[in-house]
Amino acid sequence: MLMSFATVDTPVIRKTYQLQAVLIHPNMTEETVFSKAIAVVSNWLVQKLSKVSGAQEALKNPYQCVEYAPLDDISVNIAYDERNMQWACKYVQRDNEVVARTWTTQVSICKRDGGIYADALNLCSSPKSCDSPVPYNTPIFVVELHKQIGLIAVRPLDAKPWYVRNAADVDELYDFVQDPNRSLPVLILTPANGYTEDLRYLVDEGVLANRVRGAAFVVALNLQSMEFWRTKGKQWAVYGGAIRTYLPGVDFVEGDARRHPFILKDSILEQIAVKGRDGFLKWLETTVRSKGIQYAVDYSHLRLFNDINHSLREMRRKEFEMEQQNSEELLDRYKRENEDLKNEIAEWEKEVAEMKIQKESAENDWFSVSEELDEQRQKMFYLQARLDDANKRLDGLGAPKSDVPYPDSLDELDNWCARYYPSELYLSGKARRGARASQYRDNMTIYRVLDFLATAYRDFRMNKITMDEYEARFADYELTKGNIGGKAITDTGAGRHGDEYYFHYYDKKVRMENHICKGNARSCADTMRVYFTWDAETNTVLIGWLPSHLSTEAT
Asked: Of 270, 292, 314, which residue is a domain's last?
C-alpha cells in the first residue's frame, strides 16, 4: 500500500490574548495568593478535560511536573519550581470546528519584582488557506483570578466602567493613559449632545465594560470632564458622543494621535441602524481586542512553561554537581559521559530560543509540521533520559539489565525504553505512533525483541561478543530467527514508497535498514515486524517502526 502525501499548508500564528498583571488580595499573604491562583488555573484545566477519561486523576496534584497527552489532539505540560515560587502550564488543543486549527494557551503564576504575577498568552494556529474568522476572547481563568483574588494591570481589571467626573479624575486619567506600563487599550465614551433616546451614551457603558473585561478598560466622561479632557490636547480629544480607543504606548507630547482610532457619533448611529446595538457592540469589542493584541508586551521577564522547565533541569544538574564535588574521579567520569549530551541540549536550547523570537512576530509561520515537532520533543525526552541514566549509574541506582521486566501493555513502551535503555535504544515518533495503534496480540515478544536489540545485538555491533556468543544469546530470548538483521527493503523498493521507510533522528533523515520478523499471516494480530537501523556514531539502535508490516513491493 503506497502512502499518499498532501501539500503542506503552512500555518499562520496569531495572538488572540495576552496579559501581564499583578495578583493582589488585601487579606491574603503572597503564599496564599500563589497557591490560590494555581488552584484557579488547575480547576479550569480539569474542566477543559472533563470529558477525557483519566484526566482528573492525572492532574489531581497541580504541584507535580506533568507531561500529559491523553489524545493526539490534546497535550498538557506543567512545570513547578517550589523554591522560586514559579508555576506554569501549557495547554494545546485542536479546534473542534475549524479543520487544522490549533489553540495554545500558556499561563504562569510567578513571584517577581516583589509581587505575584499572572502572565497569560493565547495563540491560534490556522492554515494559510483557512478563511474562518479568529475569535478574540478573555480566558475564563483570567475572569476567575480577578473574581477570587484580584488582578491589577496598572489599574484593577474590573468588569465595570470608570466614571471620570471632575478635573482631579481627568488628571488621574491623563497619567493612566500615558503610563508606559499600561498594556491594555482604554476606550473613552463621551455623552451624546442632542441624542434623543434615554441614554447618556450611544452604547451601554456597563455592557461594553463587561464584554471587554480583562482585555481593555472602559472610561465614561460627563460633559464637565469631557471639556477638561479637551484641554490636554486638541488632537487627543474625544467629544460629542464619539468613542476613542487609546492603545498602549501613548505619548501626548511627541506621539502620533492618529494611531489611536475614534468613531464619531454619526458613524456610530449609522452602524447601530445597520447592525443593531448588540451587533455594533460585538464589532467594537472585536476591533478593540484585535488592535490591542498587536501591542508588543515586554517578554524579557516573562516565565512560561519552557523557561521554568529548563530552569528546573538546570537546577537539578547543578545540585548533582555540588553533591559530587568531593569525588574528583566520579566528577571526571560524569563530565566525559555527558559532555556530548550537554552540547546537544545546548543546540536544542538555541533552536528553541530562535523559535521563541519568531513566535513574537504576530503572523509568522515559525511552527513546523507536526511530525517534526514530535521528533523534537522526543529528542529532548531521550536526551534527558540518557542524562538521568548516567546520573543513576554514577549513584549506583540503575537496575541491572538482567532484571529488566516486560510490561503487559505497549502504553509503557516510552517509559520502559527511557528507564532501562536510554543510551541503547532510540524510539522514533513513527514507532511510538505505531505502538499506540498496535493490533498485535503478543506484547511480550515486542519487548523481548527490543531487549535483544539493546543488549546482544548492540554488543555484537560494538565487537564486544563473537558471532557464536551472539547466536547463543539470541537463543536465550526464545525468538523465531526469521529475518534477523536482514534488509527491510531494497533501495529500489524504498524509493517507491516515499517516506514510509524513513524517519527523523535529531537533525538527520534516516532509513530503516533492517528488521526482525515473526509470523507471515496477513492478520496484524499474528504478524510482527520491528524495523531498525544501527547508528555507529552514538552506538544506538534506532527503532523506526513497530509492530505492523510496512508496505513492500509484494503488498
From this structure: 292
Q: 149 lies in a domain?
A: no
Query: Taking the chain (555 residues) in consecutive chunks of 10 residues, what is each chunk's mean pLDDT?
Result: 50 89 92 94 89 80 79 84 89 88 92 89 89 88 92 90 93 93 93 62 93 94 89 86 92 89 92 94 92 71 73 74 63 71 75 64 42 56 57 46 83 91 92 92 92 93 92 77 60 77 87 86 84 93 93 65
Q: Please, which contacts does 23-30 make with residues 24 or more away whose CB atoms are closer than 8 Å? A: 23/109, 23/115, 23/116, 23/117, 23/118, 23/145, 23/149, 23/150, 23/151, 24/115, 24/116, 24/149, 24/150, 24/152, 25/149, 25/150, 28/149, 30/85, 30/111, 30/115, 30/116
* Helices then strands, each counted (H, E), the chain: 16, 20
For the chain, the straight-line distance linking the first and the last C-alpha, in angstroms and rounded, comes to 6
Residue 199, CA distances (Å) to 193, 202, 228, 251, 278 in order: 11, 7, 22, 32, 15
Residue 99 and residue 20 share a domain: yes
Query: Residues 211, 230: contact at Cβ < 8 Å?
Result: no
The CATH number that applies at residue 104 is 3.30.530
Identify the pLDDT of residue 268: 92
Residues 6+ apart with CB under 8 A from 59: 42, 45, 46, 49, 66, 68, 76, 78
User: Are residues 283 and 204 part of one domain?
Assistant: yes
Residue 540 pairs with which residues in a beta bridge? Answer: 535
Could you give the CA distance from residue 116 to residue 149 in angstroms, rounded to a whole number? 11
Which domain range does residue 38 map to?
A: 11-136
Count of structural domains, the chain: 3
Phi, psi of 375 (to 5 degrees): -65, -35
127/47 same-domain check: yes
**Distance between CA 182 and CA 177 in Å, rounded?**
8
Q: Count the Cβ atoms, other than its own, within 10 Å of residue 245.
A: 20
DSSP 236: G
Q: Based on the domain organization, do 46 and 107 belong to the same domain?
A: yes
Pair 335, 446 in one domain: yes
C-alpha grid cell for residue 482?
526469521
Q: How far apart are CA 387 and CA 335, in angstroms?
A: 11
pLDDT number for residue 474: 83
What does the pLDDT read at residue 476?
78
Sequence-distant (6+) residues with CB within 8 A of 186 are 176, 177, 216, 217, 219, 245, 246
